[in-house]
Amino acid sequence: MTGKIKTVGICGAGGTMGAGIAIVAARAGFETVCYDTAADALSRARAQTDEFFGKSVERGKMSADDRDAAMARLSNTTDLGGLAGCDLVIEAVFEELTIKQKLFRALNGICAEHAIFASNTSTLSITEIASGCGREDKVVGMHFCLPAQLMKLIEMSPGINTADSIFDTAWAWTEAVGQIPVKT
Q: 32 and 22 in contact (C-beta within 8 Å)?
């Protein structure tokens, strides 16, 4: 099932949550495109990610080769178009409905038809976030807990219009990256 997902995009990757989600994806072997509107935030997040992986090597939790490979899977962009090749896009932007809706509408015109959109929201309705985006059947809730790279739980939520197969694919991806999904 996760064979459909090869490249993951993270919106808001310059922030703490987005950077942590990017670590989870890259560490598990997925090409990971980190998007943020601020290049300096992406640079800081990349430096912190390099430091995190360095400490993981020091503690024997990963090899130096695995660290280097994970870092090589991470790319940064401030151009939303850089997410065009992603199979799964996870947003970790401000907890504001209109911002999330606007982002998903924009991504709908950029990403391939098969791409799944996930929201890291903990409070907003997935159905409302998906409303008007053009692919309401391909939007899921995927709430990571802080810090995402250490906490294993992900609260998974379908919207009213989310297709079962899409939810199942997103669920399988969370398991593939070593997380523990729980349906909410």
A: yes
